[in-house]
Amino acid sequence: PAVLLQLLDWPVRPRCDALEVIITTGMALALKNIIRVRDELFGRGVHIYQIYGMTEAGAITGNTLLMNKLGSVGRLFHNTQLKVMEESTGLTLGAYQEGELCFKSQSLMLGYYNNPEATEMMFDSDGFFHTGDLGYYDDEGFIFITGRTKELIKWRSYQVAPVDVEAQLLALPEIKKAVVFGVPDEKEGELVTAAVILHPRYQATTAQSIEAAANLNLSNTRQIRGGVHFFQSFPNTTTGK
């Protein structure tokens, strides 16, 4: 996904006349970005499928030519079970309810080598592996990734997923890239704070105007209160994450 997003900024569009299918994995690709990649780079004839998995379990879910819902990571593969767990209570949630994604499958690892403590932390008593990923499933069984439990911002008694705020920032025409995180605050716990990269033609934009525009479409619990900070670039790994 990171490479596809980087291609959007290239001055020359790739020529891929014979390309029919793109399969992505490694990080969730937002619906807005899937549509941009498809329409701006390759055209509507190209199908983009997301697959979800991890080293501990291999591929867990995926979209196919016959069953593809943009924005989702697909349905469960065979011999795989899912439960969505509410972190604070441990209760199993239903369709459209966001919680931690937990899986059980025949391809799941037995445990971490010589590390029983880490193994015990990641598995529950029913044998489900706790991924640390937040998400939900719809009434057709398609699964959507919404964030990470470890990335949640704790504002007062509320938990804010950075990806929700990032989506609103990226919807603004001025924003090229955005990263949202929590900044410690003695009274509020953590304040939602944003680091952004502006598109070149919007360099005169103020941080206050970006904050106000994003907050218009954010609920009170997700408001940016720690400010918006401008950067020329973000540090990335070799895979663009």
From TrEMBL:
**Annotated keywords:** Ligase, Peroxisome
What protein family is recorded?
Belongs to the ATP-dependent AMP-binding enzyme family.
Q: Name one Pfam family in it.
A: AMP-binding_C
Respond yes or no to whether keyword Ligase is given for this record.
Answer: yes
Q: Which GO terms describe its molecular function?
A: CoA-ligase activity
Assigned GO CC terms: peroxisome
Q: Which domain of life is it from?
A: Eukaryota
**Known Gene3D superfamilies for this protein?**
3.30.300.30, N-terminal domain of ligase-like
Q: Which residues form the AMP-dependent synthetase/ligase domain?
A: 15-113
Task: Give the protein name, as stated in the record.
Answer: AMP-dependent synthetase/ligase domain-containing protein
- Where would you find this protein in the cell? Peroxisome
The record places domain AMP-binding enzyme C-terminal at 165-241
InterPro entries for the chain: AMP-bd_C, AMP-bd_C_sf, AMP-dep_synth/lig_dom, ANL_N_sf
UniProt organism field:
Graphocephala atropunctata
